[in-house]
C-alpha cells in the first residue's frame, strides 16, 4: 500500500585480485534542497542518504520540516560533543528512545541523567575488562559446541551465518549474564523475535520532525507485541531461574543482585533488573553477532586475508582449540575484527538530542535539535582512512592506530559501550575457534546488501556454505 514511500538503494561491490571493496550503498544523487525526499530515503535505508561531499571532516546542518539536524564528522568536534559537552549531549535521540523503550524499559542503553549515572557504574563494574577472562571458558565451550554441530553437517551444507552467529552469541551472553544455558530453541526464538522487532520499528519517528520534541510512541501492533513478549518471557525465565538458585553464582546477574543488596539506593526491583539484564543481553549478543557475520562475508571474498588468519591460528595454537589466553597473540584475527567494525559498525548512527542551545564549530545548536555522529560516515572518510571503502585489515597491524575519535564502533566518551572489551574478545576468540576448522563461502550469486535498522545487518541474513578445513 505504501510502496511508493520506498526509495531505491544501489549497492556497490568490487573484487579485483587482492583489492576488495565490499558491499556499500552508492553515494546519494538525489536533487539538493529536498529534505523530505532525504527523510524518505532515510526511512528506506539510512546508509544511502550520504553524498560524496558528506565524507569529509566537517560539521554540517540542515532543517527537516522545521527541525534542525546537525551531522558531526570531525574527530575534534566529536570529542567536543561526547567529552567536553557530554552533559548537554548525553541524551539519546527520541528516535532511539522510542524505538527501544518498549523492549528495554529504562535500561542503560537509552537512559540518561541520574538513572544512567547509577546504572552505568554498576554495569561497567560487571563487564569491566578485568572480568572478561572469567568468561573465557564460557566463550570457548560455546564456540566449540558450534564446531561440533557444524562437523555433523555435510561438507558444503548451507547455513545462514547471521542466524548461526546470533544463536552463538545469545548462548554465550546467556551463560555469562545468567549462568545457565539458553538452549538452541530459545536462542533461535530470541534471534527471530529481535529480527522481527527491528523490521517493525520506524527508526525515523516522523512525530519528532513535525514538532514533538520527545517523538511519538511506537505503535504497538499485535506483531510487535508478540515479538516483545517472546523476548521478555525468555529473559524473565532465565532471571527467575537464577533467583531460584538454578544459575551460576559468578554470573553477571548474581553480581547485579549482590550489588543491590549492598546498595539498596540503586532501587533494582524485578522490573529494573529485567531491564538491565535485557539491555546487556540484547546489546551483547546482537552487536557481536553482526560483527562476526560481516567478518565471515569479508573473509569469504578476501581469501588472501583468510589465509593469513588460518596461518596465524596454526602458528599460535597448533592443533589445540584456541583459548582466551591466545587472544593477545592473534593479531590478524584482531585486525580482521577491527577492520570489520570500521566498515560495518554494529550501530552505524550515534544520535543525540541537545538539551540546551549550544555551539559546535561554527554551527549554533537549537534546543532539542538532533545531533548525529555517524560511524558509517566517519569510518569511510578518505582523509582519515585511505581507500576507505576497501577491506584492509593491515590498517590495524604493526601498532597502527587510527586518529583519536576517528574510529568509534563502540561510541566514545562517557557513553562508550561498557561491554566493548567483552565483545571484542568474544569476536576474536569465536572467529579463531570456528576458522580453525571451517571456511565459509558466500552462496554463489547472492548479493550482499547492508541494511541499517536499529543495528547494521546484511539484508535477509548471509547465506553461506560450510567447508571443513584439512587438518
UniProtKB/TrEMBL annotation:
Its cofactor is heme. The keyword Kinase does not apply. Pfam families: p450. GO terms for molecular function: heme binding; iron ion binding; monooxygenase activity; oxidoreductase activity, acting on paired donors, with incorporation or reduction of molecular oxygen. Heme binds at residue 417. Keywords: Heme, Iron, Metal-binding, Monooxygenase, Oxidoreductase. InterPro entries: Cyt_P450 (IPR001128), Cyt_P450_E_grp-I (IPR002401), Cyt_P450_sf (IPR036396), Cytochrome_P450_Monoox (IPR050196). It comes from the Bacteria. Belongs to the cytochrome P450 family. This is Cytochrome P450. The lineage of its organism: Bacteria, Pseudomonadati, Pseudomonadota, Alphaproteobacteria, Hyphomicrobiales.
Amino acid at each position: 500500500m505504501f510502496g511508493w514511500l520506498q526509495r531505491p538503494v544501489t549497492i556497490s561491490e568490487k573484487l579485483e585480485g587482492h583489492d576488495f571493496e565490499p558491499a556499500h550503498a552508492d553515494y546519494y544523487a538525489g536533487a539538493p534542497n529536498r529534505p523530505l525526499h532525504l527523510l524518505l530515503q532515510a526511512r528506506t535505508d539510512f546508509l544511502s542518504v550520504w553524498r560524496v561531499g558528506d565524507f569529509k571532516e566537517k560539521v554540517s546542518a540542515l532543517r527537516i520540516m522545521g527541525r534542525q539536524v546537525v551531522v558531526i564528522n570531525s574527530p575534534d568536534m566529536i570529542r567536543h560533543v561526547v567529552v567536553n559537552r557530554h552533559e548537554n549531549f548525553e541524551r539519546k535521540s527520541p528516535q532511539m528512545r522510542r524505538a527501544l523503550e518498549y523492549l528495554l524499559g529504562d535500561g542503560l542503553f537509552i537512559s540518561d541523567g541520574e538513572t544512567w549515572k547509577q546504572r552505568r557504574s554498576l554495569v561497567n563494574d560487571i563487564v569491566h575488562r578485568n572480568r572478561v577472562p572469567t568468561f573465557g571458558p564460557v566463550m570457548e565451550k560455546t564456540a566449540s559446541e558450534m564446531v561440533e554441530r557444524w562437523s555433523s553437517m555435510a561438507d558444503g551444507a548451507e547455513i545462514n551465518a547471521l542466524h548461526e552467529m546470533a544463536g552463538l552469541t545469545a548462548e554465550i551472553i546467556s551463560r555469562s549474564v545468567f549462568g545457565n544455558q539458553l538452549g538452541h530453541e530459545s536462542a533461535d526464538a530470541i534471534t527471530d523475535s529481535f529480527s522481527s522487532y527491528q523490521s517493525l520499528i520506524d527508526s525515523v519517528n516522523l512525530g519528532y520532525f513535525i514538532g514533538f520534541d520527545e517523538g511519538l510512541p511506537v505503535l504497538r501492533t499485535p506483531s510487535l507485541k508478540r515479538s516483545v513478549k517472546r523476548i521478555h518471557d525468555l529473559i524473565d525465565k532465565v532471571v527467575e531461574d537464577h533467583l531460584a538458585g538454578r544459575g551460576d553464582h559468578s554470573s553477571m546477574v548474581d553480581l547485579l543482585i549482590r550489588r543491590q543488596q549492598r546498595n539498596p539506593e540503586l532501587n533494582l526491583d524485578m522490573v529494573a533488573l529485567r531491564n538491565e539484564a535485557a539491555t546487556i543481553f540484547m546489546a551483547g549478543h546482537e552487536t557481536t553477532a553482526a560483527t562476526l557475520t560481516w567478518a565471515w562475508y569479508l573473509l569469504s571474498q578476501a581469501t588472501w586475508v583468510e589465509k593469513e588468519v588460518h596461518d596465524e591460528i596454526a602458528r599460535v595454537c597448533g592443533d589445540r582449540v584456541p583459548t582466551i589466553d591466545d587472544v593477545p597473540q592473534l593479531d590478524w584475527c584482531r585486525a580482521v575484527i577491527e577492520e570489520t567494525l570500521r566498515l560495518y559498525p554494529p550501530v552505524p548512527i550515534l544520535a543525540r538530542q541537545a538539551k540546551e542551545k549550544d555551539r559546535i564549530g561554527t554551527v549554533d545548536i537549537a534546543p532539542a535539535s538532533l545531533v548525529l555522529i555517524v560511524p558509517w560516515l566517519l569510518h569511510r572518510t578518505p582523509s582519515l582512512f585511505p581507500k576507505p571503502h576497501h577491506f584492509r585489515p593491515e590498517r590495524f597491524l604493526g601498532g597502527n592506530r587510527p586518529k583519536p575519535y576517528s574510529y568509534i564502533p563502540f561510541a566514545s566518551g562517557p557513553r562508550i559501550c561498557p561491554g566493548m572489551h567483552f565483545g571484542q574478545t568474544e569476536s576474536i576468540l569465536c572467529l579463531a575457534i570456528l576458522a580453525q576448522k571451517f571456511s565459509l563461502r558466500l552462496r554463489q550469486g547472492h548479493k550482499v546488501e547492508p541494511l541499517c535498522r536499529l543495528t547494521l545487518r546484511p539484508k535477509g541474513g548471509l547465506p553461506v556454505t560450510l567447508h571443513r578445513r584439512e587438518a
